[in-house]
Amino acid sequence: QALLVESGGGLVQPGGSLRLSCAASTNIFTIYSHTMGWYRQAPGKQRELVAAITSGGSTNYADSVKGRFTISRDNTKNTVYLQMNSLKPDDTAVYYCNAHRIDADYWGRGTQVTVSS
């Protein structure tokens, strides 16, 4: 059973928007004590951090997405979101969800985001 399941990816035109969701398996763990992050990996490139949100709600973003992407979390739904606006072709990648704390590190299987006209 997957611990983290991403959804919301797809094909979008430049300038468009997508909202990614990452749902954690409630019967296995809850996200409230974890730092949640979104990473992405484009073909031929290393996986990179896109955005993260701590258990206290502090956020940080990659410079390339600041002002365009917003990460949020809903602990009651055991879900983290990534709102992506003003998408560019360079945003094309597989997006992965991560749940991290000092004694645990979980990854989802990823969702493809393609930005193309």
Number of helices: 0
Rounded to the nearest angstrom, the radius of gyration is 13 Å
Number of strands: 11
Biggest beta-sheet profile: 7 strands, mixed
User: What string gives the helices and strands in order?
Assistant: EEEEEEEEEEE
Give the percentage of residues in beta strands.
Answer: over 45%
Principal-axis shape equals: globular
Which structural category do the helix and sheet elements fall into?
mainly beta
- Uncertain segments are none
| End-to-end CA span | 36 Å
- State mean pLDDT (0 to 100 scale): 95
What oligomeric state is this? single chain
Helix content class: under 10%
Question: In words, what does this structure look like?
Answer:
This protein has 117 residues and is an all-beta fold. It has no helices and eleven strands. Strands 2, 4, 5, 6, 9, 10 and 11 form a seven-stranded mixed β-sheet that branches. Strands 1-3-8-7 form a four-stranded antiparallel β-sheet, with no helix packed on it.
Provide a short characterization of the protein structure.
With 117 residues, the protein is mainly beta. It has no helices and 11 strands. It has strands spanning 4-7, 10-12, 18-24, 35-41, 48-53, 59-61, 69-74, 79-84, 93-101, 104-107, 111-115.
